[in-house]
Structure formats: C-alpha cells, structure tokens
Write a structure and sequence with these properties.
The chain has 279 residues and is α+β, with helices and mostly antiparallel strands. It has helices at residues 4-13, 41-48, 124-131, 145-152, 159-163, 174-184, 197-216; strands spanning 21-27, 36-38, 53-59, 62-67, 72-76, 81-84, 94-101, 107-112, 118-122, 259-264, 267-272. β7 and β8 (107-112) form a beta hairpin. The chain starts with a helix and ends in a 7-residue tail after the last strand.
Length: 279
C-alpha cells in the first residue's frame, strides 16, 4: 500500500495545483524517521520556486508534478505516504509543504507516518534513466495481453509473484494482484510458463476491471486507517474486496469455496481453490 488505485486517487485529488506557480517550499520538522528528499532542500527550492506546474501525472505507484522547466517532482508514498490538500490525519507527521500562487489549491502537503516515502526532483535525463521504460514496465492500465505474455511466458515464477515485479508491469501490488487473479480465475501459484493465451487475456481484462473499480471507489483504506485521499477521507474499495484478507470466509463468487491464505515471496496471498483451480 498504496498501489495504483490509491496513487491515482491522490493524483486526481491534487489536480488543483495544475497551473500554479511555486511560491515557497518548506521541509517540516518531524520527530520521527526522516523521509528521503533529493536533492538537498536548498537546491530543491532554487529549482522549483518560481516554476509553474504544467501537469500532474502518475508513473506506476508515483505521483509526478511536471514543471515548465521540464523538471519532474516525484512523490513515492511507499507504505504510509499521503499527498494532501486538506487537513492531515495528524500534523506530527507532515514532511513537506509547497505553496502555490494562481492555483485552485494553494498548498500541497506530503505526510508520512513511518518515514518510508521518497521525494525526488529529477531532470528530464534523470527521469528517463530512473523511471523510463528500461526501469519500469508498461502501466497496469495500459499493458496488453500480448505484452504481458511476451514478458512472462518463459518465466518459472508464480504468476502472483511475477505481477508484483514493477519492471514487468507498473502499479500492481500485493492486494490488487490477489483480487485480479481471483477475477481472472487463475491460481496464484501457477507458473507463468504454464499459462495459456486465454489466461493472459483474462488477467489483463481482470486488471482493468479491478483497478478501474478501485479508482472509482477512491482506493482501499485498510484496518490501520493509514491510506486517505487528498481531502483526508477514507477510500471505500475495501468493502468490495473479493479475497484479500478474507481467509476462512465463503467465496462471494462461487458461494462454495472457502478463501485460503498462503505465503508467496514473504507476502500473504488469498484465493479460492474452486474459482482458481491449480490444474
């Protein structure tokens, strides 16, 4: 967390800074673990103050502010980072404040309880080398079945584990990988090289269905309550989850199977043995 739907919700929630000119940039004191900010804040400020935001974009699980200088400000929330234009969940964990002139939203805050988030200001060349196609796969909402199959058809990895590889497809994390494979009817432990063309098509169709639905519900706010949208409100897609964190409950789809939990690559995976047969 956050994954593509939550980050896309953040992006949409801060669109009001588009067209604004940066008036001030402030790194806020926080008694918790400091987040990673690059370059140094004084260098950072010199490059962005006076610059206009021409677009608010998303690259995988990152929100990107693109300036008229073509520099890009990358917000990577990681586990507990939030982009806010409303009051924060707790002001103690505010990390960065940006003030804008001539924008619908005059302030943008980055909040991070655990301090795992990253903020980077990249030149066009740095952006290409760090987040270009050599580093990240196609976006999960744009990848085709042919592209996904070509990348993974020879892999011995379990399909659930492979979907988490951002070099293959950008934006899918643990929660949505489980949901996608349940909708697609594919067992999470099945080897990629054993999947048929129809399976790859089902996975890509399920990816678009699940992620677009989750965006419509503004993401998933889980039990710890950490994820919030830009106005500090809960997402609601957690109420639509089919398998994630539902071990021991009856499958909503087949109404016969019981949702099971296994561990893959040190992460919990949830599935229905009836809807997602291994063979």
């Amino acid at each position: 967390m956050p994954e593509l739907p939550e980050v896309e919700t953040m992006r949409r929630g801060i669109l009001g800074v588009t067209g604004g000119v940066v008036e001030a940039l402030e790194k806020l004191r926080c008694p918790r673990k400091p987040i990673s900010i690059s370059p140094r804040i004084d260098q950072f400020a010199r490059r962005v103050v006076g610059r206009r935001v021409v677009a608010v974009e998303r690259v995988g699980k990152r929100v990107v502010l693109r300036f008229d200088s073509d520099d890009r400000l990358i917000f990577e929330p990681r586990m507990t980072g939030l982009l806010l234009v409303g009051d924060p969940p707790d002001p103690l964990y505010l990390r960065l404040r940006i003030e804008f002139a001539g924008a619908k939203n005059h302030e943008l805050w980055f909040w991070d309880r655990r301090g795992l988030g990253h903020i980077r200001l990249l030149s066009p060349g740095q952006f290409e080398s760090q987040l270009g196609p050599d580093k990240l796969g196609p976006d999960a909402l744009a990848i085709t079945a042919c592209e996904l199959r070509e990348k993974l058809r020879l892999s011995r990895r379990a399909i659930k584990v492979a979907l988490l590889d951002q070099r293959v497809v950008a934006g899918i994390g643990n929660l949505y990988a489980a949901e996608i494979l349940h909708v697609a009817g594919v067992h999470p432990a099945k080897s990629c090289r054993r999947l048929r063309k129809i399976d790859w098509e089902a996975i890509v169709d399920a990816t678009r269905l699940v992620l677009n639905d989750a965006i419509r519900y503004e993401g998933s706010t889980l039990g710890d309550g950490t994820y919030r949208n830009a106005l500090n409100k809960d997402g609601s897609y957690q109420n639509q989850h089919r398998v994630y964190a539902k071990a021991g409950t009856t499958c909503r789809r087949c109404k016969e199977g019981v949702i099971e939990r296994i561990v893959q690559a040190q992460r919990s995976t949830f599935f229905c043995r009836i809807c997602q047969p291994r063979r």
